[in-house]
Amino acid sequence: MQTGLRGRDLISLQEWSLEEVETILEVAAELKRDRALGKPHPYLRDRVLAMLFFFSSTRTRASFEAGMAQLGGHAQFIESRTTQIAHGDTAKEIGEILGRYNDGIAIRHVTWGEGNKYIREVASASRVPVLNMQCDMFHPHQILADLMTMREKKGDLRGLTIDVSWAYASSYQKPISVPQDLVLAATRAGMNVRLVHPPEYRLMPEILDQAAENARRSGGSLESMDDFDAGFRGVDVVYAKSWGPLLVAKNDDEGASIGRKYTDWITDARRMATAADDAIFMHPLPADRNIEVADEVIDGPNSVVYDEAENRLHVQKAVMALTMR
Amino acid sequence: MQTGLRGRDLISLQEWSLEEVETILEVAAELKRDRALGKPHPYLRDRVLAMLFFFSSTRTRASFEAGMAQLGGHAQFIESRTTQIAHGDTAKEIGEILGRYNDGIAIRHVTWGEGNKYIREVASASRVPVLNMQCDMFHPHQILADLMTMREKKGDLRGLTIDVSWAYASSYQKPISVPQDLVLAATRAGMNVRLVHPPEYRLMPEILDQAAENARRSGGSLESMDDFDAGFRGVDVVYAKSWGPLLVAKNDDEGASIGRKYTDWITDARRMATAADDAIFMHPLPADRNIEVADEVIDGPNSVVYDEAENRLHVQKAVMALTMR
Amino acid sequence: MQTGLRGRDLISLQEWSLEEVETILEVAAELKRDRALGKPHPYLRDRVLAMLFFFSSTRTRASFEAGMAQLGGHAQFIESRTTQIAHGDTAKEIGEILGRYNDGIAIRHVTWGEGNKYIREVASASRVPVLNMQCDMFHPHQILADLMTMREKKGDLRGLTIDVSWAYASSYQKPISVPQDLVLAATRAGMNVRLVHPPEYRLMPEILDQAAENARRSGGSLESMDDFDAGFRGVDVVYAKSWGPLLVAKNDDEGASIGRKYTDWITDARRMATAADDAIFMHPLPADRNIEVADEVIDGPNSVVYDEAENRLHVQKAVMALTMR
């Protein structure tokens, strides 16, 4: 157990050791039991988290804000458009000033090529921990919830096979932060990872290099494929969601146009039936229903999406309680 | 006293028994005294309420949020437009997920034909109580505040006469939830109810049937009229406010056009003078001043609108403390 | 020490006695030490502040909301545009109703000719303290933070010279509340005040009369100048920021046009070098960087802008703890 987490930023899960991640998951499980028992756990009484959103959210905001309140503290919901941040305040000023008013700063900024850079600039100016609520490259709290959920359903993750797949969606060009951080985490956990996507939807090369290195160390594996159906065969975990062709497309229109070539990349019952019998279907939500995934799957017996969403709360409370105390 | 309210939804007041309503009012009175004395009452320490608004509000949001804070908890102010709710999250997902993050969900959704349906869908997916902060059909927390206020001013309500009247307003086509829930509650309380409105402003027939049945059981009465002036004569309580011709008009323009036939339906001093000497004037606010009601009445000695607004806080704290503990 | 502050409004600092201001600064220093030590100070446990914003803000909102949370209470962030305040609720209704739901009301309303009037109307209807988070005339909490910061850096303020100067900015016509309240406070503190601005940027005559009277009583002085460079010479404190020519310009366009005559009014290293060697540079932020002030100054060794911004938190907590208990 590694517990020296006070004051630590969480920007990419890869920057935290496996033992530190283990500590988070253990604390999260304890907090989940405490909440079920109604046992008070005010580890952050009267502490304050500033939540800074450059992009709207339901689960992320609701779970961080509820989590701080359950820990006895308070989370400020700050939308960048309602403030002077858009016109005048630099990242350094935000880090300096919000870091003096608060005990932690959480930021969601998914703009491609900007989000991670902004978060790191704020972190370098802040005297308190900075937590990444999703950037253009990483989504560590989602991935912690995913790890917790897979462990609850499957136990030891070593040797299990996960299908990390692209799927079609019509709504908008979603960030690549979830598949990137998931591939990194699953290879570190010793899983056999199938990364499946059409050629245009590739991830950042340095992330894949790191994931390959993770697999080499853990005894897991990383395999890239471009056959949607093949990705499902015999896997223990299906994690199929849409993202944008951000490394390829010059703009949203071009991205949407590329996507329309692959509208048959939808997770349906026929495909799920080719996975292992007890395979679980995961998705960070919101899903484009019947476009990205069929109702029969997301509402079916193999779906664990609500438990997955719930675990956001518990892992985030664990991170906050350990870093912001 | 009926106290088994933990976990109960409050969507329509009619679904709660008279004894349960009585319990709410007793707890509300105690909480009002506690606040006046500065006596702590943290019945919901570190509990969290999600407040979901599909329509803006001042009193409703401010009173629920202040109430949760005074009870030691926290209320999240979630506007549907700032989230992914508008594009992607189903009612079931909102109920499942917000129900796992929070200890209660409060919803305001007044769109005609949609609001009540949405709230019930969320409630059926939620593991925690769902509280109706106003829908297209009901406004139970307003009506609880109205009952508390009438009791504070008039004592036993049985046998008193209340004028539940339409009035003109130019601002927008307001919901019919207040008159509907008020007519139901007043007939249950044994009051003699005059429901007064131009023919186009009728309420839902099934509500009126239920109100008639309520009156039969309680010894009260229900009378429908279309003469604004006659509604005032000799009554103990004047509750005159605007609402839209929602069962008749196909759209807002047609609704506004119908309204302009009745611009003289304004509560003024001359009309108030025909009520009982000690009649009280009630209104849930905000009022269209000098259109819906004259300043001389709403700011006059018979007006109880500020006490009525204040009692929103106390009844809502009672409901939350009893259902969300 | 004057401690009878329970229930007091803070709308203009001039309305509080020097001893009362002294009490605020002493409590602020204690709260600042408590926070550094992690010593709990829940003086407002479960109390609620309504923050009403007619104009967006970063520091003001974040510091008031964090401050209430650290004191054990809660601050509601209410934007006027999200409520019915814009259409229907009068100032009296806001004061009556928010005053019944909350333990304090804080308002930011900087519209020229309206803000202060609105705040006083709310205050006269409210049963709880009303705190001015900046109006068209005054910004008392900023000035309290400025006094605290100057005392931390310079000790006794009597006899020190401060350059309260206009500077150019292109972003928008900023309120005159900071220079007005600062000139009043600095003359009361016995400082020698140089008020420096182009002729079009004059302040309200009654404010200057009051400041002159303050100086007469305190042994300080007040001098008006229109030479930007001369303002810097030998001063102990440089407080140069932009404001609009609100007493002269009929509209924003005319204001912007006047401003463009003075684009060389920027605080740079050359000008700072003419001040005293240990002169401090102050600014309430956000600054128009390299237009209003050069990076070399605001990020340089004489700048105290982050400490100044931090002290907003501590003085506001002191005001809230003393008035809202």
Largest pleated sheet of chain A: 5 strands, parallel
Main-sheet strand order of chain A equals 7-6-5-8-9
Oligomeric form of this entry? homotrimer
The CATH topology of the largest domain in chain A corresponds to: Rossmann fold
Number of helices of chain A: 12
Rg of chain A, Å, rounded: 19 Å
Terminal CA distance of chain A reads 18 Å
Per DSSP E runs of 2 or more residues, the count of β-strands of chain A stands at 9
Q: CATH superfamily of the largest domain in chain A, please?
A: Aspartate/ornithine carbamoyltransferase
Q: Which strand-content bin applies to the residues of chain A?
A: 5-15%
| Overall number of domains of chain A | 2
Structural class of chain A: alpha/beta
The portion of residues assigned to helices of chain A is: 40-55%
- Overall shape of chain A: it is globular
Q: Kindly state the mean pLDDT of chain A as a whole number? A: 96
CATH architecture identity of the largest domain in chain A: 3-Layer(aba) Sandwich
Main interface: chain pair and counts: A-B, 29 and 26 residues
Pick out the low-confidence regions of chain A: none
The helix-strand sequence of chain A is: HEHEHEHEHEHEHEHEHHEHH
Any overview of this molecule?
3 copies of one chain form a homotrimer. By secondary structure, the first copy, chain A, is α/β, with parallel strands linked by helices. Chain A has 2 domains: 13-139 and 310-323, Aspartate/ornithine carbamoyltransferase (Rossmann fold, 3-Layer(aba) Sandwich), CATH 3.40.50; 143-308, Rossmann fold, CATH 3.40.50.1370. The first copy, chain A, contains 12 helices and 9 strands. The first copy, chain A, has helices at 18-37, 59-70, 91-101, 115-125, 140-154, 177-188, 205-218, 228-232, 252-259, 269-272, 295-298, 305-323; strands at residues 48-53, 74-79, 104-109, 130-135, 161-166, 192-196, 221-225, 237-241, 280-282. A 5-stranded parallel sheet of chain A has the order 7-6-5-8-9. In chain A, helix 3 (91-101) crosses helix 4. The longest helix of chain A has 20 residues, at 18-37. The first copy, chain A, is globular and about 50 Å long. At the B-C interface, helix 2, strand 2 and helix 12 of B face strand 2 and helix 3 of C.
